[in-house]
């Protein structure tokens, strides 16, 4: 079954100290299905890579290789943004204290009726309240 993938889950695949059995299981799922992401996802993934390169946590080549591997995965970028996108996000921001970025993942999961793969504690708390099933959580 397709699912919505957020940047926190994606970045767990990049750094050994952030990988878990649960996050690796989500990555393996992409061999059998696809993930949906909001249009901001590429920026949210690239920014921590750039920061990691600047801080010396990884090399430019390692960041580039990770982005190339992501590009080969079955990840589809949702293109449902319009000038009124903020109006769709504002209720989630207001009710749960989410950032607009996090609200975009929750809105996408709810709109498409897909489970959400996230490690973000705010999304983990808000998703079930919106009827969104979570993937990648420890039992």
From TrEMBL:
<dbReference type="InterPro" id="IPR029060">
    <property type="entry name" value="PIN-like_dom_sf"/>
</dbReference>
<keyword id="KW-0460">Magnesium</keyword>
<protein>
    <submittedName>
        <fullName>Putative nucleic acid-binding protein</fullName>
    </submittedName>
</protein>
<dbReference type="InterPro" id="IPR044153">
    <property type="entry name" value="PIN_Pae0151-like"/>
</dbReference>
<dbReference type="InterPro" id="IPR051619">
    <property type="entry name" value="TypeII_TA_RNase_PINc/VapC"/>
</dbReference>
């Amino acid at each position: 079954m397709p699912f919505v993938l957020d940047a926190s889950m994606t970045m767990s695949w990049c750094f050994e100290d952030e990988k878990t059995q649960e996050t690796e299981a989500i990555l393996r799922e992409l061999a059998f299905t696809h993930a949906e992401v909001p249009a901001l996802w590429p920026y949210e993934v690239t920014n921590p890579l750039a920061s990691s390169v600047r801080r010396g946590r990884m090399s430019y080549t390692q960041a580039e290789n990770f982005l190339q591997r992501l590009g080969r995965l079955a990840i589809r970028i949702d293109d449902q943004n319009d000038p009124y996108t903020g109006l769709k996000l504002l209720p989630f921001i207001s009710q749960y204290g989410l950032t607009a970025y996090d609200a975009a993942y929750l809105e996408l999961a709810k709109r498409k009726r897909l489970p959400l793969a996230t490690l973000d504690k705010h999304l983990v708390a808000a998703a079930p309240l919106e009827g969104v099933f979570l993937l990648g959580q420890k039992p």
